[in-house]
Write a structure and sequence with these properties.
Mean pLDDT of chain B: 87
Helix content of chain A: 40-55%
Shape of chain B: globular
Number of strands of chain A: 14
Number of strands of chain B: 13
Radius of gyration of chain A: 25 Å
Largest sheet of chain B: 6 strands, mixed
Oligomer: heterotrimer
Structural class of chain B: alpha/beta
Number of helices of chain A: 13
Mean pLDDT of chain A: 84
Largest interface: A-C, 54 and 60 residues
Order of helices and strands of chain B: EEEHEEHEEHHHEHEHEEHHEE
Distance between the termini of chain A: 92 Å
Chains: A alpha/beta, B alpha/beta, C mainly alpha
Shape of chain A: globular
Low-confidence stretches of chain B: none
Order of helices and strands of chain A: HEEEHEHEHEHEHHEEEHEEHEHHEHH
Helix content of chain B: 25-40%
Largest sheet of chain A: 5 strands, parallel
Low-confidence stretches of chain A: 1-6, 27-52
Strand order of the largest sheet of chain A: 5-4-3-6-7
Strand content of chain B: 25-35%
Strand order of the largest sheet of chain B: 6-8-9-3-10-11
Chain lengths: ~325, ~270, ~375
Amino acid sequence: MKGNGITVTRILRGALFILLAASLAACGQTVSETFTQVGQAEPEPPVASASAAPDFPLTLTDDAGRAVEIPAEPQRIVSLAPSNTEIVCALDACDRLVGVPEFRDGYPADVLETIADLPNVVSFGPVDREAIVAAEPDLILAAGNELTSSDDITALADLGYPVLTLYPESVDEVFADIQLIGSAIGAVTQADALVRDGKDRVDAVVATVAAAETPRTFYEVSVFEGQIYTAGEDSFLSSLLELAGADPITGDTLSTAIDLETLVAQDPQLILLGDAAYDPSITPDAVARRQGWNEMTAVVDGNVRAVLDDIVITRPGPRIVDGLESLARLIHSDLFE
Amino acid sequence: MTAVTAVAAEPLAELRDVTFGYGARSVLRGLDLWIDRGELLAIVGVNGSGKTTLLRLLAGTLRPGSGSVSVFGRRVSAFDRRELARRVAVLPQSLQLPSGFRVAEIVEMGRTPHARSRFGATADDEAAVERALVDAAALDLADRPVEELSGGERQRVLVAMALAQEPELLLLDEPTVHLDLGHQVALLDTVERQRRNRGLTVVAVLHDLALAASYATRVALLDGGRVVAEGPPRDVMRPPLLAATFGVGLDEAITPDGARHLVLRRPGG
Amino acid sequence: MRATLVTARPLLRGPSLGRTALVLGGGGALLLVALVAAVAIGTVGVGPGETAGILAHRLLGLPITATWSPAAETIILDLRLPRVLTAMLVGAGLATAGTVFQALLRNPLADPYIIGTASGASLGAISGLLLPILLPGLAIGAGTAWLGIGAVQVLAFIGGLLTVIVVYAVARSGGRAPVVTLLLTGYAVSSVLAAAVALLMFSSGRALGVIFGWLMGSLGGASWTDLALAAPLVLVAFSAILARWRRLNVLLLGDRQAAHLGLDVERERWILTMLATLATSAVVAISGTIGFVGLVVPHLLRLAIGPDHRLLLPASAVFGALLLVVADLGARLAGGIPVGIITALIGAPFFIWLLRRSRSVALTVAP
């Protein structure tokens, strides 16, 4: 019967589709631009960011490497991550927040009070774009590494909002981000002071633990159905533990998981229970009863401690220094009164 | 083989030295057969002798391993599917019908190879469908949903669908297997009418020798993948030949009107 | 030779004009209502008067003084309108593809994803989502786009199409790809890809929430650009499929009889599969894998209006669009949950009710 001319037909059809789609996409771009009205920044010559009092408009480079133009000092700030919320409040700009994430856990009391009535702009997963637009922000503080999806970031930026993406991976980067946000909202002086104080305190901790032995430490983030999660290799948490004078046992870089055999082989001298802050059933005694855990040096010596302020330790915000101090106290209790 | 008579026209269809096998199993072994226009050729033989395979080769759904199959003077493989379907129709033994259609709509599917309009049936199609329903004695079923048909009614619908194709050659694949005697006779009467009135050529695979003998103008007996005998029924349907092929005892009886009948001899007297 | 008709009444009315008008007209009207309602209603209140004003002013160019805030305008025109239109497109595309696969594979459980589109597109999309995390040096990701679309959509589209092509190639032997082989091969390939997806999810760390949202299907990422790219693909696929309505009807008779009626069955199956996959991949690329629409809508309509694809195809498209617009509205009001959850919650009980009501949803009647 007939030959296989279908392949040619299919390819031609496919090419036609793609051509059609491409030309229509060009139209689509034009259509989309016609509709966008809100927050269109007028092109101004960018002013380099500096720690001396910057004037607006200015252009900043965020943690994702994007150049973000901020036309005027922001008065309506939307935060898409709790750490950003805390930074803004630490810079005395809490009253300028107009939208925050849904989860209200682990904030200091004064912050909680201020943000109590603010609308929720993000829950688990994607952001609520309508809520963000309705809040009429002039600055959006997003979280990097897909905590806020890049799709959402691009969409909000396309709508004309200045979107700053923050993703600190160490204490020093937290300080840098505090100063970045400080520049962005016109609170440079406060940012500088906060960072100066923070650095002093960090130096003090480092000095105190410098001479001490660094115990092999396992920080338990969570244990669920046989899966153990801890600080990932080269992660923020592992760097924090090192600063606090510990030798952290780390898990997989991406998944942060570690298997029990490896953990037993590493034989931690100290176990810190970060999940004890959220689950009262996680206690040193409970850990000692776990299958395969009872031979670990930490368990045998009784060096299993609950970390009740885990949220402070794992939130890369202004209280990270509190977290560091708290960790150092847990690890080297003898060096701190 | 019968005596050669002067051939007035080219055969409608021809199989020449055809072999066909399913994997290692060889079904047709060097089979020769021709089909004349306007005849009703019955193909008989035991199961597995290749009757259905032969039909499928004629319909073009199978290709011979070697040899040639031609219809209307051309190799079957040289035909476009659609072109072939305009001239050759197949009446299947049975068919699963999609529920939700009315009979007329099913019969209209027989117009597919002729269909010209993108939007639906043309007046020609309508006329052809109606004619087919009338010929198949199924006009009264036209509006019935197919789910509600009995076995006999179903078969009439399938016949109508085949006739709606307005074929020159109609292939029947053991069409009487599921039918009771009354319906069997009705079916073959319809087909015979078409043959006489419209010059339809029919090739029917039949397992019922009595039906074959009654309706066929010519019979071909298949055994071991070849045609071992062909000719008018009276010549082929002889006890010795059939007994050898089917492995049963057969006698012949003559009724007072002179008609000859095959009688099955029961084992043990 | 034209014989005179024996009877005066027409035997082949086709889907009657009255019924066509009722189904398509009624469906279309409901769709319009749903469209307006879905644009006017959302998590943020924009009054119906303001909504109408914004639409009239910006879309129709009517001179109306703006009594609304720019934020309201952005919400209606940049967020809701593209989202609702995307819901229509995706619903129509999925329902059409589902109709085609149910006819092609003669299987009442067939949906647009049955031979591997979902798993292929998922793998593509999740790879796109994780690329910036797994390979930061590659600098693909946020802000990288070609013609306005990101790596996720492109990879999802390609993943869906490629998977079906591979399934077909594997299932084909001797130039034929029989239905059962296609189904089984699709299942096998899907399983392998699903395992790969699971592996990626395990390694995804904190991006897991985003990935899960994509898998459940969501219209939250709708944009005019996505719409402009996907719409022509879906429309062309739909038109080409609708033009083949007769062939789809005949294929219901089975491969052998369809061949006897002049169809090149293998070729038709290939073409229709690719057309349906084109539509499916295009919509999955922009909305993730939304379930149930492609399965339930064709069944419901077939029970209501019969299997003739001349009417079934456009009706499926209209009611598929309607279902998804309504489901998306529900998803938005329920707190922005993935719309796939709503379609499953509506679809499943409805389907069960359907099964109990009708004698069967089998597509054919055995002799």
